[in-house]
């Protein structure tokens, strides 16, 4: 559905580094991300930003942050491009030895997150927070930006107060917006990372196709799929497989010990699977044996809804225009949920940005976008997902895409036209 033609390096040639072929250039990946963050910083009145959010730290430093922050690591980026990183003892010493692009790595005193929370002591928490603020202030003095406004990418009144006690002027909203803007448009290497993780997910779907049969439990099949993902070098931070009546509505426990039976619909969601930090979100639906006509029709509805939305995505389009391609309240089956407003139906039909986090800019959703639209730009990446009930079961389908000049390039390639039928004996 797009005229985009892939270039030489595009198309997931392999997960390893080689000297005989151009693949993902990790040096360029790090450099271009830091440059983009610095460009956004230079557009503000900030002299530096203090990054506590893991994805922002990885974006600027290239360090392997894996998820939600315990705040035992943090980074300063100055307007001159200087980077100071603080981390736990083992990590910091490892980074000094193995990350030559980072010239200033220091030992962290975590004033937020797991360490102060576990201390059980108000005085300990005060010590940690004040020491963190003190060491950040010292670094800002060393790099000549202590008299300028410091941006902070998390909304922590306690940290803001501790920094202000040191005489620093702190701005939370500007730093957060600058980093969101920097990360919204992906570089070529970032897009290739997302292609790679889509390909790895497809290896997982193949394992599901091979392992799913009557008598297998959801957790057994999912375990085999996860093993395949790890074999390809992925980080697995989420995902699930569900079957039969657990597919509508989606089961709260995700994968369970339910035994798969003939005639079941099965779907899997490879979300938060990472390659070099870049996260997937990728649904596909399977049928154990030939699906019924009701199930085929439900699948066609979900797929058509998905592709109606994809046809609307292009540079310059706004998220309210795109969101109108998703089902209205009737199409959402709002009566099933006893819902009156779209905001009550989070995650059923929407599109969300992908990158170093599972949810990034942009978000396209009837519950939000109609009244709060933003503009789509070339280079944004996202996952678009839909669902539809089929009697006591349901289907889900999702594509990972990048916005191109002439529409979207679909990064996910597992067949989507029809439900994947799984034969068994």
From TrEMBL:
Pfam families: Creatinase_N, Peptidase_M24. Residues 192-405 form the Peptidase M24 domain. One of its GO terms (molecular function) is aminopeptidase activity. Keywords: Aminopeptidase, Hydrolase, Protease. The keyword Cytoplasm does not apply. Residues 33-185 form the Creatinase N-terminal domain. Signal peptide: none annotated. CDD domains: APP_MetAP. PANTHER family: AMINOPEPTIDASE, XAA-PRO AMINOPEPTIDASE P-RELATED. This is Aminopeptidase P family protein. It comes from Natrarchaeobius chitinivorans.
């Amino acid at each position: 559905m797009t005229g985009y033609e892939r270039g030489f390096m595009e198309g997931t040639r392999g997960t390893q580094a080689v000297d005989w072929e151009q693949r993902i250039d990790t040096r360029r990946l790090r450099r271009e991300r830091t440059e983009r963050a610095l460009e956004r910083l230079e557009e503000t009145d900030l002299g530096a930003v203090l990054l506590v959010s893991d994805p922002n730290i990885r974006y600027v430093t290239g360090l392997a942050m894996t998820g939600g922050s315990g705040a035992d690591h943090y980074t300063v980026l100055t307007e001159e491009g200087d980077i100071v990183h603080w981390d736990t003892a083992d990590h910091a010493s490892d980074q000094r030895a193995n990350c030559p692009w980072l010239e200033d790595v220091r030992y962290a005193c975590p004033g937020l997150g797991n360490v102060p929370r576990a201390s059980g002591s108000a005085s300990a928490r005060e010590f940690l927070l004040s020491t963190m603020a003190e060491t950040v202030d010292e670094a800002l003095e060393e790099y000549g930006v202590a008299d300028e406004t410091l941006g902070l990418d998390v909304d922590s009144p306690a940290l803001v107060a501790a920094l202000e006690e040191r005489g620093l002027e702190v701005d939370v909203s500007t730093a957060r917006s600058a980093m969101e803007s920097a990360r919204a448009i992906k570089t070529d290497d970032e897009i290739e990372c997302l292609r790679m993780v889509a390909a790895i997910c497809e290896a997982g779907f193949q394992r599901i196709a091979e392992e799913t049969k009557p008598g297998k439990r959801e957790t057994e099949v999912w375990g085999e799929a996860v093993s395949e993902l790890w074999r390809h070098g992925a980080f697995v931070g989420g995902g699930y497989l569900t079957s039969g009546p657990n597919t509508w509505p989606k089961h709260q426990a995700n994968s369970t010990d339910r035994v798969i039976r003939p005639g079941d619909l099965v779907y899997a969601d490879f979300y938060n699977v990472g390659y070099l930090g870049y996260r997937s979100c990728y649904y596909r639906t399977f049928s154990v044996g030939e699906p019924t006509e009701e199930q085929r029709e439900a699948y066609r509805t979900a797929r058509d809804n998905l592709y109606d939305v994809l046809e609307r995505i292009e540079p310059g389009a706004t998220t309210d225009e795109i969101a109108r391609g998703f089902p209205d309240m009737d199409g959402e089956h709002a009566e099933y949920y006893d819902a009156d407003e779209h905001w009550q139906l989070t995650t059923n039909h929407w599109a969300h940005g992908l990158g170093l986090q599972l949810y990034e800019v942009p978000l396209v959703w009837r519950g939000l976008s109609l009244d709060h639209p933003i503009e789509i730009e070339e280079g944004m990446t996202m996952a678009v997902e839909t669902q539809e009930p089929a009697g006591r079961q349901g289907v889900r389908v999702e594509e990972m895409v990048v916005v191109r000049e002439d529409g979207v390039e679909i990064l996910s390639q597992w067949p989507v036209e029809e439900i994947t039928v799984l034969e068994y004996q």
